């Protein structure tokens, strides 16, 4: 047995040595020797990514690794930004069939723009752990379908003990839905909207109300700043619904229009032209039919789920080369799972899009930098550049391959645990049945 006194002395010496290291080295990680996919400026073979205090401090072939830094050997491996799912229900749904665990929307009114995903996020969700094990470090958590206006989404990272620690940006977008979903939800209740005409009319009326609300608020603010010795008038009443609509009208957040068939996509385009908001299309099963028009206007499109089947009237135009056709037409694309507990399938769904013609570099953009740009967080996420958040993954093979695994993952500059209830079950049954 080792001498306890010697052991204690060694431990004390190690503590003094650690304390003597430069402060930055104690929070420094160097990922060395990997094939670095920067996304923004090409591929660096045998590269090093240096992380300090949660941020990317340097990237290149000749990066100096500070003494005392934690070194992750990535020789023979791929280093890239973490994946970004551009639409899911992470953090708001645990078990879809168990209503007590579902907090993704309200079905009391078709116009729910005041709802914020921020207020329902659950940092302790097991679905978050399962998803990040697949290399997903960020997502756009969205309100559920079924309302004409669903509410406000949030960009989150898949680590954090608190909501504040998870949220990258909120609100990230205002979500509207055109087509079957709200018709089904409210038609069954004998409430509007029961037709597509009703949907668009209600949306137009809501945007018009928001324009008037903004005019009243602006007029009051201008009067208050006029500097005249007048008795102050009462401030106009705040309206949370209108506040969300005005944020979209002012371009502070985009409007994500969920629409599948061509006529619904065209309705979204007309609304954007009339009210001058920043439009992002989502779902978009039939977008390939008007790819040229969308490409000419540079309308961003969030495609997915890739493996959706033509099981609804609106999805009869769904096809596996939708992403490839849109990319070829110059449409900026991102990809979503639109899932709650199946977000882990994102890399494999993208592999199908690649096999049906989507170039691999376009797929990488669609899962990293493009969604970051769509939601205004590209100054922090989406590529391996100095100053950005260190949300990174190390892979043992080519991205988007079934046999490729995430071997190391960093979120906010910290190495995260990739275990979850699925990996624990896997290990349990391997041991139980003697599987090698």
What is the overall number of helices?
Answer: 13
CATH topology grouping of the largest domain? TIM Barrel
Percent range for β-strand residues:
15-25%
Largest sheet: 8 strands, mixed
Structural class computed from helices and strand pairing: alpha/beta
Average pLDDT works out at 93
Helix share of residues?
25-40%
Report the uncertain regions: 1-21
- General shape: globular
- Radius of gyration based on Cα positions: 25 Å
What would your notes on this structure say?
- The protein contains 13 helices and 18 strands.
- It is an alpha/beta fold and 436 residues long.
- It has two domains: 116 residues, Urease, subunit C, domain 1 (Roll); 290 residues, Metal-dependent hydrolases (TIM Barrel), CATH 3.20.20.140.
- Strands 1, 2, 3, 4, 5, 16, 17 and 18 form an eight-stranded mixed β-sheet that branches.
- α5 packs across α6 and α5 runs parallel beside α7.
- It is globular, with a radius of gyration of 25 Å.
- The N terminus is likely disordered.
Topology, pairings included?
Blueprint: H1 4-20, E1 28-37, E2 43-52, E3 55-60, E4 70-73, E5 78-81, E6 83-88, H2 126-132, E7 136-141, E8 149-152, E9 154-157, H3 163-166, E10 167-169, E11 174-177, H4 180-187, H5 196-224, H6 240-249, E12 255-259, H7 262-275, E13 279-283, H8 291-297, E14 301-303, H9 322-328, E15 333-335, H10 346-355, H11 360-366, H12 369-374, E16 392-395, E17 406-411, E18 414-415, H13 421-432
Helix pairs in contact: 5-6, 5-7
């Amino acid at each position: 047995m080792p001498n306890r006194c010697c052991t204690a002395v060694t431990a004390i010496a190690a503590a003094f040595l650690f304390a003597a290291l430069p402060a930055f080295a104690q929070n420094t990680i160097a990922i060395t020797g990997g094939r670095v996919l920067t996304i923004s400026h090409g591929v660096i073979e045998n590269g090093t990514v240096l992380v300090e205090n949660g941020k990317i401090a340097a990237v290149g072939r000749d990066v100096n690794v500070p003494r005392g830094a934690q070194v992750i050997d990535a020789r023979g491996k791929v280093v890239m930004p973490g994946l970004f799912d551009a639409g899911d229900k992470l953090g708001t749904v645990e078990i879809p069939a168990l209503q007590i665990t579902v907090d993704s929307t309200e079905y009391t009114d078709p116009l729910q723009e005041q709802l914020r995903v921020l207020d329902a996020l659950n940092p302790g969700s097991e679905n978050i752990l399962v998803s990040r094990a697949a290399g997903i470090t960020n997502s756009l958590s969205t309100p559920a379908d079924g309302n004409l206006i669903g509410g406000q989404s949030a960009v989150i990272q898949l680590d954090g003990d608190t909501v504040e620690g998870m949220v990258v940006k909120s609100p990230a977008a205002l979500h509207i839905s055109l087509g079957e979903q709200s018709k089904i939800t409210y038609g069954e209740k004998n409430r509007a909207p029961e037709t597509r005409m009703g949907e668009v009319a209600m949306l137009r009326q809501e945007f018009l109300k928001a324009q008037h609300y903004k005019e009243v608020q602006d007029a009051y603010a201008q009067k208050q700043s006029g500097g005249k010795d007048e008795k102050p008038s009462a401030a106009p009443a705040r309206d949370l619904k209108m506040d969300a609509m005005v944020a979209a009208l002012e371009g502070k957040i985009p409007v994500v229009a969920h629409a599948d068939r061509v006529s619904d996509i065209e309705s979204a385009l007309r609304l954007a032209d009339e009210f001058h908001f920043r439009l992002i299309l989502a779902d978009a099963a039939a977008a390939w039919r008007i790819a040229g028009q969308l490409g000419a206007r540079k309308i961003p499109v969030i495609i997915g789920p890739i493996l959706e089947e033509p099981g609804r009237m609106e999805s009869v135009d769904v096809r596996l080369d939708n992403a490839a056709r849109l990319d070829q037409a110059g449409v900026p694309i991102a990809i979503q799972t639109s899932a709650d507990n199946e977000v882990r399938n994102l890399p494999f769904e993208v592999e199908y899009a690649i096999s049906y013609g989507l170039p691999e570099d376009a797929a990488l953009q669609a899962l990293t930098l493009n969604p970051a740009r769509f939601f205004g967080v590209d100054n922090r996420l989406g590529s391996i550049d100095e100053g950005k958040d260190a949300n990174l993954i190390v892979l043992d093979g080519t991205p988007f391959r079934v046999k490729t695994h995430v071997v190391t993952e960093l979120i906010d500059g910290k190495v995260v645990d990739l275990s979850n209830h699925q990996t624990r079950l896997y290990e349990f049954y391997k041991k139980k049945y003697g599987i090698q």
